[in-house]
Amino acid sequence: MSLQQTLILLKPDAVQRRLCGKILGRLEDRGLKIVALKMLKVTKELAAQHYAEHVKKPFYPQLEEFITSGPVVSLIVEGPGAVQVVRDMMGKTNCRESAPGTIRGDYGLSRQVNLIHGSDSPESAQKEIAIYFRPEEILSYDSTLAEWVC
Ligand code: RTP
Ligand code: MG
Predict the structure, then answer these.
(1) What is the ipTM, given to two decimal places?
(2) What b/e readout covers 97-130, taking b as 16+ CB neighbours within 10 angstroms?
(3) Gene3D superfamilies from the xrefs (predicted)?
(4) Which of 15, 64, 95, 141 could join 108 in a cystine, given CB atoms 3.0 to 4.6 angstroms apart?
(5) Residue 65 domain-assigned?
C-alpha cells in the first residue's frame, strides 16, 4: 500500500468539547504521522470550497452554520493507505450509526455534529490539502527520535 496524505478537520464540536487531544491521540496511536497542523476559523467561502459537492443540498445551510460556528483544527496525516484508514477510524457520517471503537461511534450522537472530517478519496485529499495548506506548511521529516522515546 502506497504512502498517502489525507486532510482531517477536528470540527467545532471537537474543539468546544475539548476532545482534540483524545482524537489526535487515536490518530497517533494508530501510527499516522502528523505532517501539518493548525487552528483556524472556517469562513463561509472556505466552507463552500471544501464542501462544494454539498452546496446545493438541502442540509447545506445547517452544515455551513455548524462548520463556521467556531475554530477547527486542520491537519494532514501521512501513512500507508491513510485515506481509508482515517475514514474507517471516523465511523459513519451519522454518529448514531457508527460502531463503538470509531471516533464518531465513541464520542457522538448526531448526524451532522460529528466531530471529524476526513478526505473521502486520494483525489479529494489532494484537493482539500491544497485548500487548507500552503506547500511550505507541510513538513517532511524522519522519525529518528522514535528509538530514543522507546
Ligand atoms: P465529512 O465530509 O465531514 O468528512 O463527512 P462525511 O464524508 O461522513 O459526510 P458527507 O456526506 O460528506 O457530509 C458532509 C457533512 O455534512 C453534514 N451532513 N448533514 N442529512 C444531513 O443532515 C447531513 N448529511 C451530511 C455532516 O456534518 C457531514 O459530516
Ligand atoms: Mg465527506
Answers:
(1) 0.95
(2) ebeeebbbbbbbeeebbbbbbbbeebebbeebbe
(3) Nucleoside diphosphate kinase-like domain
(4) 95
(5) yes
Instruction: Please give the positions annotated as active site.
Output: 117
| Residue 95, φ and ψ in degrees, nearest 5 | -55, -35
Ligand 1 pocket, 64 CB below 6 A? no
The CATH number given to whatever domain includes residue 135 is 3.30.70.141
Domain count within the chain? 1
Instruction: Please tell me if the CB atom of residue 110 comes closer than 6 angstroms to any atom of ligand 1.
Output: no
In a domain, 145, yes or no: no
pLDDT tens-digit map of 65-121? 999 999 999 999 999 999 999 999 999 999 999 999 999 999 999 999 999 999 999
Domain range enclosing 45:
3-140
Ligand that lies nearest to the alpha carbon of residue 57, given by its number in the listed order? 1
Distance from C-alpha of 35 to C-alpha of 141, rounded to nearest angstrom: 8
Give the pLDDT confidence score for residue 1 in this predicted structure. Answer: 73
Task: Report how far ligand 1's centroid is from the alpha carbon of 114 (Å).
Answer: 8
